[in-house]
Write a structure and sequence with these properties.
Blueprint (H helix, E strand, L loop, with lengths): L3 H22 L4 H29 L5 H30 L8 H5 L3 H8 L10 H20 L5 H17 L10 H4 L5 H14 L7 H19 L7 H12 L3 H13 L4 H6 L2 H8 L1 H17 L13 H28 L23 E6 L2 E5 L21
Length: about 400
């Protein structure tokens, strides 16, 4: 079984995907909550891949080429099969006439497709903008973490965050906002790099900086105001101000949420995040995110045969759409994704020594000892399989 902290991170992934489903199935102005859920996904992804790569780098047998090869192969095994299966289905049925733009999505350039057109067409693939940004991040970030001097990694993270924030702050100079403001990689690097900074920082201490401990509640309150403030009409400057508030202010609270989840909440929140149904949803959250727009498009087409209203935002759409998406994602995980995911044990981040006969797996490190008042983490890259390993929740393996 996975340890407590990884179960809680899967619980946070459930929270993130729930916000996305709520946005697309229920909320009248769904983009706000959906984007916040995506921001949480970004922080989780930046944290988990950076933690994993730093653990590999800390091992005495670390070799950059081996770790890079393992990273890219393992990411491909986890991400590509369900993603391209989804694209193949959409190509076959030409859902919403999406066949003509599939080459952009197949190359993980969805964010540029929508940004250049400045419209969400086809809608059925609009969620792939965030998957494209993550893939673009995955191309570069392992090289940074594995090859840059270790003492500079936190500074690099801070520099990336600063550049992303500068990109946001320059938008009043550009005139009327458009989708490019949200969809270029520079608009999301702050969340991904903030998660990475958390992993690098946590590798040497568990203590939060005082400014974060004192500032997260005011930032969360300001973000809540920005999320709910939607005057009509709205000027470009006011729109930009609300956008900054709803995008930037939640960043510190989200980072602290992930950081506390990685340590293990010792509170009712932690027990809630560890409930088996919650962690199970977190396990299949990639499939839920990937398939839910297709499910929505299909149930709207099937409205004549569905006794509740699924053609409009509301409870009926949420119940039918979520249930159908859960079913599809569960089947995909059990039949398709899980067997492929288990192949990753053949691609360890650290080459096995001759004394190890069992396949290695790369999972999150566990507390080893206290050094200089801070926890150190064992690079647990060689764990032998005991029992049914495929049923273990391994947060670092999931999107």
């Amino acid at each position: 079984m996975s340890n407590t902290r990884d179960r809680q991170l899967d619980g946070l992934r459930t929270l993130a995907v729930s916000m996305v489903l709520y946005a697309h199935f229920v909320a009248a102005d769904g983009s706000i909550w959906g984007h916040l859920g995506v921001r949480l996904f970004f922080v989780l992804s930046g944290f988990l891949i950076t933690r994993l790569l730093l653990e590999a780098r800390a091992d005495s047998r670390y070799q950059p080429a081996t770790a890079l090869k393992a990273f890219y192969i393992r990411r491909a095994l986890r991400i590509f099969p369900p993603y391209f299966a989804m694209l193949a289905f959409i190509w076959f049925v030409n859902l919403e006439g999406a066949r003509g733009s599939l080459k952009w999505h197949a190359l993980y350039l969805s964010n540029y497709w929508y940004a250049l057109r400045n419209e969400w067409t086809p809608w059925v693939l609009c969620h792939t903008w965030s998957l494209s940004i993550e893939e673009q991040f995955y191309i570069v970030w392992p090289l940074v973490i594995l090859l840059a001097p270790r003492r500079l990694i936190e500074r690099i993270c801070i520099a990336v965050i600063a550049c992303s924030l500068a990109y946001r702050l320059c938008w009043p100079l550009t005139g009327t906002p458009n989708l490019m403001r949200d969809l270029l990689p520079s608009a999301s690097m702050d969340a991904l790099a903030a998660g990475a900074l958390l992993a690098a920082y946590r590798s040497r201490t568990q203590a939060w900086p005082q400014w974060m401990r004192l500032g997260w509640m005011p930032l969360a309150a300001a973000a809540a105001v920005a999320l709910w403030l939607r005057p009509d009409p709205i000027s470009p400057i006011l729109d930009w101000t609300i956008w900054i508030g709803s995008e930037v202010f939640p960043l510190v609270p989200l980072v602290m949420l992930v950081g506390n989840g990685s340590s293990g909440f010792r509170s009712p929140i932690g027990r809630l995040l560890q409930l088996p149904p919650i962690t199970a949803i977190g396990r299949i959250s990639y499939g839920l995110y990937l398939f839910h727009p297709i499910v929505l498009a299909l149930i709207v087409k099937a409205q004549p045969w569905i006794p509740v209203n699924v053609s409009e935002q509301g409870a009926g759409r949420f119940v039918i759409g979520s249930a159908a998406t859960l079913l599809l994602a569960s089947v995909s995980w059990l039949v398709f994704e899980k067997p492929l995911n288990n192949l990753k044990r053949y691609f360890p981040y650290i080459a096995r020594n001759h004394q190890s006969s069992a396949p290695s797996t790369a999972i999150a490190g566990e507390p080893l000892e206290h050094r200089h008042g801070a926890r150190a983490y064992e690079p647990a890259l060689y764990r032998r399989d005991h029992g049914n390993r495929g049923d273990a929740v391994q947060t670092s393996d999931f999107q």
